[in-house]
Protein 1
Amino acid sequence: MTTRGRQIVLAARPKGRPGLTDFRLEETAIPTPAAGQLLLEVQYLSLDPYMRGRMNDGKSYAKPLEIGEVMPGETVAHVLVSSNSAYVKGDVVLARTGWRTHALSDGAGLRKLDPAAAPITTGLGVLGMPGFTAYGGLRVIGKPQPRETVVVAAASGPVGSLVGQLGQLAGARAVGIAGGPEKCAFVKDELRFDAAVDHRAPDFPARLAAACPDGIDVYFENVGGAIWEAVLPLLNDFARVPVSGLIAQYNGVPDGDGTDRLPATMRQILSKRLTVRGFIYYDFASEHYADFLREVGAGIATGRIRYREDIVDGLENAPGAFIGMLEGRNFGKLIVRVAA
Amino acid sequence: MTTRGRQIVLAARPKGRPGLTDFRLEETAIPTPAAGQLLLEVQYLSLDPYMRGRMNDGKSYAKPLEIGEVMPGETVAHVLVSSNSAYVKGDVVLARTGWRTHALSDGAGLRKLDPAAAPITTGLGVLGMPGFTAYGGLRVIGKPQPRETVVVAAASGPVGSLVGQLGQLAGARAVGIAGGPEKCAFVKDELRFDAAVDHRAPDFPARLAAACPDGIDVYFENVGGAIWEAVLPLLNDFARVPVSGLIAQYNGVPDGDGTDRLPATMRQILSKRLTVRGFIYYDFASEHYADFLREVGAGIATGRIRYREDIVDGLENAPGAFIGMLEGRNFGKLIVRVAA
């Protein structure tokens, strides 16, 4: 057992796109658990777009991180030392340790993972927060019906890939939007969406329209920006728009062309009687999380539900991987392997 | 009985603000009812903001009016001649004759009014489409709870005045936004809202914030534009925004200041988990209209629910009154007295 741990803290608040110098890798002493506590060793760290918001100063649904604080995040960890009767050494848990190699816990908020049931990394992706974001947003807001059309962007990512597959399981057509031919091929051929559209194509709006001949009934919004503009005219009357993320504007909104796009969106909301509703996965957790684990867990076990993980080695590489994710450079659920 | 009727048709499609020359008054022959038909003589014509949209060419929830067609609209009429066994001469009905003095009907879509139950003009306002717009939007989308804050603009108008009063009946605080001190005094003193705020005041956003010390839980959107901008930062987590109208943009959206306001709205929808949902009153009619008539009818009868009508004399004055309404010059539900 090593005697020194490592952690990554917020070094500076980024303006716009974060840079590597906004993060700092620190060595730390490995703490000793008191009675009732556990010492956790992190195996996998999840990198998720919401973390960009936590680096800002402004009001959001979570309080901002202070400079010098450890970057927040969900991890898969195993118990190194237990002074808590509910856990034994070797137990694998889902925890919120943040970007670090070791952490103490009193057991609160941990969830034990069964490595025999599914690969433990799925607890950070398709069977974790991103997966439940897809499930909750569709179940509570999107409500896809048979023969409707469900559209989602970042379709090769952990939320989007499940949105389309759950839409299909509900009997709807699934159309995925992704960046570049490789991701589109994955969405169409591996995830088996009904169609995939490359948002980098110069005629993207026309391609999206062609892929949605009956319009769009559910648009699961996790991107914003130019994709929303292409989706808006295709939405059908009474379409539902769960808003789970706006990654296109997390690094700031680029200077526009002087057009105020709000009136057009409001006009469509009114004339088509759209429902546009923001949510965060935990809003729905108490009511729907158990169903989610059972239904999606079964889909994973049978192979009906597919997913892709993009695993980066080494905690020290987390900042670079995170910066790339905000620009769509990951391919699948982005996870950092912190310890083997 | 006169032998000539009159009607007002769409003469030209307005660009932006309509002008008097966009309408044309025509004389017509009074038709004779065939078997099964009624001849209706219009007493009151309702003028409503949605009519502006019907003058345009673009796609909306209703097909656009053709040039030369009679302007659409709901009316209170009485039966002059009946060849339909379900009606007798003198019956008073709610009809959709449009802007005209006389019309034939086969009885379909008519609703008999009881002049003893409430003044017949209320069928066009507080007990008609505008009233049900308020009722349905609150009942299905807004869902005001005790001690919440409900905000509505155009608060002296037929929709807004009922939104606030129904909010109070549900136990919420009602804050009305209106244009000018006279309308604000009416909202506060006659309609008995908890507060009224003048949107023409230079410090309107600060005044609105002061009137909503606990934030806003339901914002009933019937205006759009600058009022939405002042409301947005005050919305609480999980606030509901029924969108029933956008009168500020019906004559076109003024040139902006180069700011794209959509990203800020989307960010608030996400971080505060807002529900923004458009609707049209008839979406909810089959399920809720009977409850509406009973509940609001009882409130009118006891005096608990108050309303104001702005009655203009003469069909020939409908275009000028309509143009003024789009600029907020009416004070209460705008109705044209077509015949005594």
Protein 2
Amino acid sequence: MDVLQEVRKPVLDSYFERSAVTRNHMSCAALDCEPKQNCVAFMSAISRAMSKFRLAVIQLQVTGVKRDNLSRAQRLVREAAGQGSKVVLLPECFNSPYGTSFFSMYAERIPGESTQVLSEAAKENQVYLVGGSIPEEDGGKLYNSCTVFGPDGDLILKHRKIHLFDIDVPGKIRFQESETLSPGNSLSMFETPFCKVGVGICYDMRFAELAQLYSRQDCQLLVYPGAFNMTTGPAHWELLQRARALDNQVYVATASPARDETASYVAWGHSTVVNPWGEVISKAGAEEAVIYADIDLQYLDDIRQQIPITTQRRNDLYAVTQAQEGSR
Amino acid sequence: MDVLQEVRKPVLDSYFERSAVTRNHMSCAALDCEPKQNCVAFMSAISRAMSKFRLAVIQLQVTGVKRDNLSRAQRLVREAAGQGSKVVLLPECFNSPYGTSFFSMYAERIPGESTQVLSEAAKENQVYLVGGSIPEEDGGKLYNSCTVFGPDGDLILKHRKIHLFDIDVPGKIRFQESETLSPGNSLSMFETPFCKVGVGICYDMRFAELAQLYSRQDCQLLVYPGAFNMTTGPAHWELLQRARALDNQVYVATASPARDETASYVAWGHSTVVNPWGEVISKAGAEEAVIYADIDLQYLDDIRQQIPITTQRRNDLYAVTQAQEGSR
């Protein structure tokens, strides 16, 4: 059993535990051999099968009507699952317009209306659903929060945006999330049977340390629901994703709302998936769309063999370290 | 006196100490006022003047004849200085062909023939000369070493490539620097009257931590003499530079040898300068060329005001830290 399988075994085990199909049954079917617990050939076959999966990114057209946003999201998750997607990603603020004046108006507690829809969509379609983000209300504070649901409909992660979007490019774009939102204080990763996934929201992507820590903790896919604008979008959206992917040799996926020229905040769109070689392998335009990418973890391993920066880092000279849980 | 001037003052002081022009004399001439030591208006005027400088990157055609390489470099440094350049950058392995079979053949001690030429060129042209790199022999070991000379011809820095270039992309490129070279064990920064500069060599650029530490230690320009090849060049050369520049909001400059299709190792060329917004502001093709970029530290400060990631980092959650001097 190689190192890769060693790493994936606990995840596979937990997958089978929750699956209706037993390990031994799968063993027979897959290999046409007698049932045999912990069979090496079986694990190897499954590991190969698990090394590829389809990711869908939903570039949702977001309106001011929450119910419409939720039902459209529900429909597109179903469409994505119908195309064989195992992990589905929604955009930042997928249930409401993005803007400091809207956050409190649309904010919900978690669990609440929007996360209930996400939970049902994940379960109905048997997918890992990264629910973009919604404005969350908790204890009198507002957060920009991403929830992730497993194929059983359970909430498996909540990520509150760590880095609030406060920028001021004169004559172009001024936005101060911190006027209304509070920041999260934790890194956020979740396991799937395929790979571990790191989560950030939009502006979080500008901070390389987050991606570095996720990849050092074995995430092979980073997802960033985001809503870059018409200034920073063309300048930095793709560059940041390609940088995170290449520097850490991971897959990176972003989901933006579709562009709405009539909105107070106009999103750049261009939801994207980048591979560990730094190449864009799937990209939306400005309109509503579902884009797909086949994530290939064997390819990722190959890249890390070819240009082995993950083992060549000079740990004797520098380190990226995670501090204790944030205290803000 | 603003913070910027506070930071630059010691550097300016040391500049004036080494200069034939006295502070008071300059004060009179620049401001048409009575000589007055530590005059705030004077410092302010000088600081503004110092916030821009011209950088030249020499994409040298390197041959197997060391003497030719040195004299061509000498001529192009003169040309660059004639265009007002204050900092001049030469490529990796500028004095000899790049390749494991050549390193020992062309290796020199430092000081030696090649660094003597660099020292004279820096002094003759009154520039900071980042002397690309040369194969260095020291104590029976070989290094890929970058030397930097000040306008007085003094050696002010030696950087030995920290990350050796060991990659294997099947059917494309296999190269193992570590078969013949030993790695350096130190980060390398130097001061100029304009800004602090961080130095890496080629493959060092793939390791984001180095650039992060340089920028956290106030470098505003990073220089990477490098020689990417025909596989990694088109894929990663520009992306890595833009990533380093954008993530750290610094200027980044690379100098490659010109392309020689007959060489055993064919360099990609495309020496480049990127600004802190992540834009390519100057770029060579494949041929020998000198390219120029006006480095504008006020623009850098503006970018850092507009998208203030340098102050928004979550130091309570993560850190990039420098370990003790390497022990390898």
